[in-house]
Design goal:
Blueprint lengths: L4 H10 L3 E5 L6 H16 L3 E5 L19 E2 L8 E5 L6 E8 L4 E7 L9 E5 L6 E5 L9 H5 L3 H4 L2 E5 L10 E4 L6 H13 L5 H15 L9 H12 L4 H10 L3 H12 L2 E3 L4 E6 L1 H7 L6 H11 L5 E9 L2 E8 L2 H10 L3 E3 L2 E7 L3 H14 L1
Parallel strand pairs: 1-2, 1-8, 2-3, 8-9, 9-10, 12-13
Antiparallel strand pairs: 4-7, 5-6, 11-12, 13-14, 14-16, 15-16
Length: 376
């Protein structure tokens, strides 16, 4: 009888010593809470976990109230061994001598008789040190960004488990645990950990999972919140998760410079009800006066979205130089994200599209961008 996906995961974990947990590029709070929880769960099982993801927007700073895992990397490039193989069935090797030069390495190989037949020589890359890859909160491998782009081979060499809740998930893993009825990936992780070993779900893991659920549901205010979400949140609080502290850190405690930048953005806010678009313009002066930087823009877009929930597209344009304008758009509709990234020649990462317009001032860039958005 074929094993169920959760049984396949249990079997893989039993056979693994080193597990690589990969989050999407620029992870959401749901992904971070889920990743942290799964990391600490594996540690308690005696497995060595490593977290890998690219955090361009420094989103992790918002989650400093959670204990940070030790093994976090922005790359999974390994210093992997390269193995030279000689068939010694008919001709044994009597001596191997490496010679290191300034720009090269020579390896002298002495056979017992005659010379070495080139057909007896081959080379292979060594196996990855990871026994298992677990991808969290990603509908596809492309969402992993640079981690996937720079290391595509490892995704086919090592068993891959895909845990997610997005309905557009492509089931790209050998084992797929995709629960589209869950409010968040953290909710899915809770159910998985309960089945694998509920005794290991301690206060710290519960706090990470509740952080993911609160972030994924915007403190239980999104439509994706279900009675089951609330029941799981209650269980996590029974385990010691601190709901009020999480909400205070995520929604009520923000750096003063970020709040100053937010105020400057809100002062220039524009609304197009027909396009369901909210946007604002910024200058280098705004960053200087508020002592902030463009990495704060994703948070600003999220706050604009919270205040104008009737709109679908949220945009900020800002000067990089006098004739270079950068733009960032937040949109929760995956199809619209693809269309926007295409027509604006930008880069889409989850629900954010980043793009650049050169040879234009900010007002010219605003006009051109609005015209392109109207086309779609």
């Amino acid at each position: 009888m074929a094993l169920e996906p959760i049984q396949q995961l249990e079997k893989l974990l039993e056979e693994s010593k080193n597990v690589l947990i990969i989050l999407p590029q620029n992870p959401t709070g749901d992904a971070i809470g889920s990743g942290w929880a799964f990391y600490y769960f594996l540690e308690k099982k005696g497995i060595i976990p490593t977290l890998a993801f690219v955090d361009e927007f420094n989103e992790l700073e918002r989650f400093n109230f959670l204990p940070r895992p030790k093994n976090i990397s922005g790359s999974i490039a390994e210093a992997r061994e390269f193995i030279l193989v000689f068939n010694t069935k008919d001709n044994k090797i009597s001596n191997v001598k490496p010679e290191f030069g300034s720009d090269e390495l020579r390896i002298s190989i002495t056979p017992e008789k005659g010379s070495i037949d080139p057909r007896d020589f081959s080379f292979i890359p060594a196996k990855s040190k990871y026994d298992l890859i677990v991808v969290l909160d990603s509908p596809d491998k492309e969402t992993l960004g640079k981690i996937f782009e720079e290391n595509p081979d490892i995704f086919y060499e090592v068993p891959l488990v895909n845990i997610d809740h997005h309905p557009n998930n492509e089931n790209f893993g050998q084992v797929n645990l995709v629960n589209i009825t869950a409010s968040s990936t953290a909710e899915s992780i809770f159910e998985i950990l309960e089945k694998v070993d509920s005794n290991l779900v301690d206060e710290n893991i519960s706090n990470c999972l509740l952080t993911g659920i609160i972030s994924g549901t915007e403190s239980f205010q999104r439509k994706n919140t279900t009675p089951k979400s609330l029941q799981i949140a209650a269980k996590l609080m029974d385990n010691g998760a601190k709901q009020q502290e999480i909400i205070r850190w995520l929604y009520k405690t923000q750096p003063f410079n970020t709040l100053k930048l937010w105020g400057r953005v809100m002062a220039r806010l524009n609304l197009d009800e027909e396009l369901k678009l909210v946007w604002s313009l910024m200058t280098i002066e705004d960053f200087v006066q508020s002592r902030s930087n463009p990495n704060d823009i994703p948070f600003i877009l999220e706050k604009i979205k919270d205040n104008y929930s009737a709109s679908n597209i949220f945009m900020v344009l800002y000067n990089e130089k006098s004739d270079i304008v950068n733009g960032m758009i937040k949109c929760s509709d995956p199809e619209m994200v693809k269309k926007l990234s295409g027509i604006l020649e930008g880069i889409a990462k989850q629900d954010i599209v980043s793009f650049k317009l050169e040879g234009k001032n900010i007002l010219e860039a605003e006009k051109e961008t609005l015209e392109k958005i109207r086309k779609i």
